[in-house]
Design brief:
Layout: H1 3-6, H2 10-17, H3 25-47, E1 55-59, H4 66-80, E2 92-96, H5 103-113, H6 124-137, E3 142-146, H7 149-152, H8 157-172, E4 179-184, H9 188-192, H10 196-201, E5 202-206, H11 216-231, H12 241-250, H13 255-267, H14 278-289
Parallel strand pairs: 1-4, 1-5, 2-3, 3-4
């Protein structure tokens, strides 16, 4: 262990670990699907004929790690295919919806990300016409809209249909068709399925939960070893199948939550402490969930009887 790692503060340790990423099998599948979307767009431009952009709907429960996976997939795309065969540069725009959002508000939000100022008093049509012009002017042909449920959950039936039609219009635009990635919780697919045309343009991809019968245990172990090595912490005491099963169950079998938990536990180790133990896991789990010892997955023998879906407030 280097002296630099020994003297690392908690904040420095957390900052370093927050950048840690493990490329798992699901990332390979996501890359393949994204590649198909890009190939379809690239070929369409080469034909010089009218074509429709296609897209993806990436779904997963909150805490499944979908936003991180899409970020990394787009980063890999840019690294491996900086320019398409049609001559266009690989340029994309990402944005996440902020709570309850209307179609007009999303347009304003995208213009803000594009660096274009416009008054909120402008009509919805004016705003989205400017979005289209800015995307084309800046050479952006792929957009990713995250947390889409924030918009669809608050819209009525007529407004939902209008938004779906608007998304299709962007993907089919004669002058500048777009490839689109929509991401959100599983209910997002219900909205995509409302329209046959949109459904035909969208490829679905689901980020599943932890599978204890597959290779998922090995992937958690790889992550644990990786973060331990990164900051010089001995993780040997928690490299145990039963510990990993408890860790997964306690976080509803969601990768994003499990990985965040590991990072938080190691980040919070007292200065000078260089080994993480099951006791550290139990202590942090109790603090982060507010559960009593009898509901702590790291303390209770029959841990699958613990209620892990709610926060508690024990004395």
């Amino acid at each position: 262990m280097t002296s630099q790692k020994r003297t690392m503060t908690k904040v420095q340790r957390r900052a370093l670990l927050k950048t840690r990423y493990l490329k798992m099998g699901r990332a390979e599948k996501l890359d393949i699907l994204l590649g198909e979307v890009v190939d379809d767009f690239d070929a369409g431009v080469i034909t010089a004929d009218r074509f429709e952009g296609c897209g993806m709907a990436v779904i997963g429960e909150s805490g499944s790690g979908k936003s991180k996976e899409i970020d990394m997939a787009l980063k890999r795309l840019l690294e491996t295919r900086p320019r398409l065969e049609c001559g266009l540069e690989t340029r994309y725009l990402q944005d996440a919806l902020r709570g309850e959002t209307t179609w007009k508000a999303l347009g304003l939000q995208l213009l803000e990300r594009l660096g274009y100022q416009i008054s909120a008093s402008r009509t919805e049509h004016e705003i989205w016409s400017r979005v289209r012009a800015q995307l084309q002017g800046q050479g952006i042909w792929l957009i990713h809209i995250d947390e889409c449920q924030h918009m669809f959950q608050t819209l009525g039936e007529n407004e939902t249909k209008k938004v779906i039609n608007a998304i299709k219009t962007f993907m089919k635009d004669r002058q500048w068709p777009l490839a689109v990635i929509l991401s959100g919780i599983p209910e997002l697919l219900e909205k995509v399925n409302l329209d046959n045309q949109l459904r035909n343009l969208i490829k679905p991809f689901a980020l599943g939960q932890f599978d204890p019968l597959g290779d998922d245990i090995d992937e958690i172990d790889l992550f644990v070893c990786g973060v331990g090595e990164t900051v010089g912490i001995d993780v040997s005491a928690i490299r145990d199948h039963d510990v990993y099963m408890r860790m997964a169950y306690g976080h509803e079998n969601l990768y994003g939550k499990v990985f965040r938990f590991i990072v938080e536990v190691i980040s919070k180790l007292p200065d000078g402490e260089i080994k993480v133990t099951p006791s550290h896991l139990a202590e942090h789990y109790g603090q982060s969930t507010g559960c009593a010892p009898g509901q702590n997955v790291f303390l209770r023998e029959d841990y699958e009887a613990c209620n892990v879906s709610v926060l508690m407030a024990s004395d």
